[in-house]
Write a structure and sequence with these properties.
InterPro entries: AMP-bd_C, AMP-bd_C_sf, AMP-binding_CS, AMP-dep_synth/lig_dom, ANL_N_sf. This protein is an alpha/beta fold and 456 residues long. The protein folds into four domains: 30 residues, no CATH class; 235 residues, ANL, N-terminal domain (Rossmann fold); 69 residues, Luciferase, Domain 3 (Luciferase, domain 3, Roll), CATH 2.30.38.10; 93 residues, GMP Synthetase, Chain A, domain 3. It contains twelve helices and 22 strands. A five-stranded parallel sheet has the order 6-5-7-8-9, sandwiched between helices.
């Protein structure tokens, strides 16, 4: 950033005419210059007076900072004794838990690479990631062992009990046993540099097949610094983790970044509106008719509006935008069409983004299209969101069959269903002569959505 000081940069836009580049107008965040540094050491060395690091929302179990860092050292010692070294890949297959950060921080402290995956993925999808990333060790829970069936990877269980689903899994120990180990200062310590790989997380495949995204310790340290420098976080502040820790945002912000500020993270094993709203105090929601503003009853679809102490005051110097977003009683207009059932669960039923929203899960059409195109009888395909009252949206496929093919709707759905997680399954198929595309070859999804909904 220092070299930018000599450039003529427009203070309003951040644009530099000499190299046609836009520069950030924010003051640079200071980053550590020492080359030999891993993200675990960077976080653990931050001075603060925080006491509780994590709280399990379901059980109320607390994990203090002292307990956390001792556990990280203990697990790192065990991993070192098991032969885990710099550059080795370790798989973590688990829903959110207070033990998730322990595994990640322990692995990265050794210079090893953590790769995470969605526990809702199928065994086939997880198998593809395993084949690509080649982990030498895996951490998982007993319930997910079947998804690693057939793998020869040594497994560490995150829970003490071993279920009947273990089968022929090569279970070597449990995380709790590793946490009991006395940390060893004499364990093998490889030199870890900021440019070394820390994580290998896989993309959702919105533009094709899922790809492994490599992030270095420098990347993570920069993101952690952003979290703690851009927000006025006070020691002991509580944050609810409603996003998956196996995604980069959840991993950086909740599993690692907030630790550096001495904050407390309340962990939900998975996102449930009931659990989240029972954790957030003083939160209100209502569903209203978008046209009249009249409040609706249970199971009636309308716009979701929220009110609570955490809702913004408004937009700075923009009263028009504030008025269009907040009503006179402080209700935030979310722009999401939904209904709330008898149990208080909120179901989003209409989204404008291209990603298909099925029960809150994101389904990338491109991933399903790539899978469809691998079928020997399919010439072309497109996937769109189809509206549904119960799940919000589900994937619908428009398929062009190859000449002479008698492929059926059921055949298409079964082909995809065997290879993807349940929420990604195609639930409606229509056969067409061609897929509408623009001159550059991009699928005209809006045309297909209009065609599908015109028949409702």
């Amino acid at each position: 950033m220092a070299e930018n000081m000599s450039l003529a940069i427009d203070p309003r836009s951040g644009f530099c005419r000499s190299n046609s580049t836009f520069y950030s107008k924010r003051k640079p965040i200071p980053l550590p210059k020492n080359h030999s540094l891993d993200v675990t050491t960077f976080i653990s060395a931050r001075a603060h007076h925080g006491k509780v690091a994590f709280i399990d929302a379901a059980t109320g179990r607390h994990l203090t900072f002292s307990e956390l860092w001792r556990a990280v050292d203990s697990v790192a010692t065990c991993l070192s004794d098991m032969g885990i070294r710099k550059g080795h890949v370790v798989l973590l297959l688990s829903p959110n838990s207070i033990f998730f950060p322990i595994v990640c921080l322990s692995v990265m402290s050794l210079g090893a690479i953590i790769t995470t995956t969605n526990p809702l993925n199928t065994a086939n999808e997880i198998g593809k990631q395993v084949a690509d990333s080649k982990p030498v060790l895996a951490f998982t829970i007993p319930q997910l062992l079947p998804k690693l069936a057939g793998s020869t990877i040594p497994i560490v269980l995150l829970e003490d009990h071993v279920s009947s689903q273990a089968g022929e899994a090569k279970i070597v120990t449990t995380l709790h046993q590793m946490m009991k180990r006395e940390p060893s200062g004499s364990r093998v310590r490889d030199r870890v540099n900021q440019d070394d790989t820390a994580t290998l997380l896989y993309s959702s495949g919105t533009t094709g097949a899922s790809k492994g995204v490599v992030s270095s310790h420098r990347n993570l340290i920069a993101m952690v610094q952003t979290v703690i420098n851009r927000f006025s976080i006070e020691v002991g502040e509580k944050f609810i983790c409603t996003v998956p820790m196996f995604h980069i945002y959840g991993l950086v912000a909740f599993a690692t970044g907030l630790l550096a500020s001495g904050s407390t993270v309340i962990v939900l094993s998975k996102f449930e509106m009931h659990d989240m709203l029972s954790t957030i105090e003083n939160m209100e929601a209502k569903v209203v008719d978008p046209d009249s503003g009249k409040a609706l009853n249970v199971n009636q679809t309308g716009e979701l509006r929220l009110r609570g102490p955490s809702v913004m005051k408004g937009y700075f110097s923009n009263p028009e935008a504030t008025t269009s977003t907040l009503d006179s009683d402080g209700w935030l207009r979310t722009g999401d069409l939904c209904y709330i059932d008898e149990d208080g669960f909120v179901f989003i039923v209409d989204r404008l983004k291209e990603l298909i929203k099925y029960k809150g899960y994101q389904v990338p059409p491109a991933e399903l299209e790539a899978l469809l195109l691998s079928h020997p009888e399919i010439l072309d395909a497109a996937v769109i969101p189809f509206p549904d009252r119960e799940v919000g949206q589900f994937p619908m496929a428009y398929v062009v069959r190859k000449p002479g093919s008698n492929l059926s709707e059921t055949g298409v759905m079964d082909f995809v269903g065997r290879q993807v997680a349940p929420y990604k399954r195609i639930r409606k198929v229509a056969f067409v002569a061609s897929i509408p595309k623009n001159p550059s070859g991009k699928i005209l999804r809006k045309d297909l959505i209009k065609l599908a909904t015109s028949k409702l």
